[in-house]
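Morning. Coffee machine broken again, so started the prediction first thing and wrote up yesterday's gels while waiting. Chain of 141 residues, entered below exactly as on the submission form.
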Amino acid sequence: MILDDIKKANMVALKEKNQTARNIYSIVMTKAMIETVKKREKNEELTDVDMVAILQKTLKELTDEADGYKQAGKLEQAQEVEKQKEVISQYLPQMLSEDEIYDIISKQEDKSIPAIMKFFKANYAGKVEMNKVSMVLKKFN
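Came back before lunch.
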């Protein structure tokens, strides 16, 4: 599970005194803990799909943060945030390309927009950007 890998990497970063990695691992683990509590209320478990969503959201937040630092002229802080992005990016699955999405859509019987979007959300959550699916789907309709 992704969370277990992050916890192990956090321990390695602690031993190596890698503060950059430790900072981002702490943030991700805190977000995972919050999500775990929410899931327990519904009698559900935290899954890798949930972790991918957490990592993607964190990556977007870091991108916004880095842009803010760059606009403010604080390049050193921006570089630090970029390093954090690199640390958590390694835990994200490889995203599907447009060609792969096209191949998957072409194999589906029902190529209606709602059916395809539902199919991708159910089977490829965290592995595909839904706006890219929509864009490729427009080529069929």
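The radius of gyration is 18 Å. Going to sketch it on the whiteboard this afternoon.
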